[in-house]
Amino acid sequence: xxxxxxxxxxxxxxxxxxxxxxxxxxxxxxxxxxxxxxxxxxxxxxxxxxxxxxxxxxxxxxxxxxxxxxxxxxxxxxxxxxxxxxxxxxxxxxxxxxxxxxxxxxxxxxxxxxxxxxxxxxxxxxxxxxxxxxxxxxxxxxxxxxxxxxxxxxxxxxxxxxxxxxxxxxxxxxxxxxxxxxxxxxxxxxxxxxxxxxxxxxxxxxxxxxxxxxxxxxxxxxxxxx
Length: 226
Ligand SMILES: Nc1ncnc2c1ncn2[C@@H]1O[C@H](COP(=O)(O)OP(=O)(O)OP(=O)(O)O)[C@@H](O)[C@H]1O
Ligand SMILES: C[C@H](N)[C@H](N)CCCCCC(=O)O
Ligand SMILES: [Mg+2]
What we know:
- Catalyzes a mechanistically unusual reaction, the ATP-dependent insertion of CO2 between the N7 and N8 nitrogen atoms of 7,8-diaminopelargonic acid (DAPA, also called 7,8-diammoniononanoate) to form a ureido ring.
- The protein has about 230 residues and is of the alpha/beta class.
- About 35% of the residues lie in helices and about 20% in strands.
- The protein has eight helices and ten strands.
- Helix 1 (about 15-30) packs parallel to helix 2 (about 55-60).
């Protein structure tokens, strides 16, 4: 039976995709078959008549098993805006049942691990009544938190962890990602986060150059997830 993890972040653009693909690569290095799932994506381009998202493309590329695009990303919206607004503009509704069906199909593959990347942060609306976190709750997925190291991230990280746990879910691990190379007192902030976060620390990604960004898995230790 495949093990699925949900990757969330302290915000949008904090490195969820970079970390998700790094986790996929790290899992493959220890012999796991891994696939990725991006249930809801906004910010997509039309390719051969199908809307495609960069995050989902990257996860499709890293998968151990070749998958059709729609299996990786069932909900794709063109504008790079909050997905529930993009859905409304497209006269579509995001159904959590359909997202569950997609996950169930991935569980039927030979994958050992399924890495599910959220959109935005933890409390991401699907419509005016539902959140993506409700779906994660329903699926009982352990959560991996990506903390984008920038001023304000301590508060965002602690509140996100509080919310995940109040939702009855576990924080399987967290990653510190240096999204801002110019952050002042990075080390002191990192020490504070490590002291205050009581969940397995999976590693720290430095600000990566164009050459290094292809190998982000070397900064992670996935032992706590195995
Ligand atoms: N450690 C890093 N070093 C260099 N560039 C980084 C690093 N982390 C993230 N980036 C870059 O920052 C951008 C945002 O990262 P990423 O797309 O992984 O964020 P995200 O949280 O998945 O965003 P979204 O909410 O849109 O899904 C990307 O261009 C990525 O390559
Ligand atoms: C387009 C962007 N990169 C993300 N995929 C969507 C982020 C939505 C955030 C919604 C919110 O919480 O305000
Ligand atoms: Mg992403």
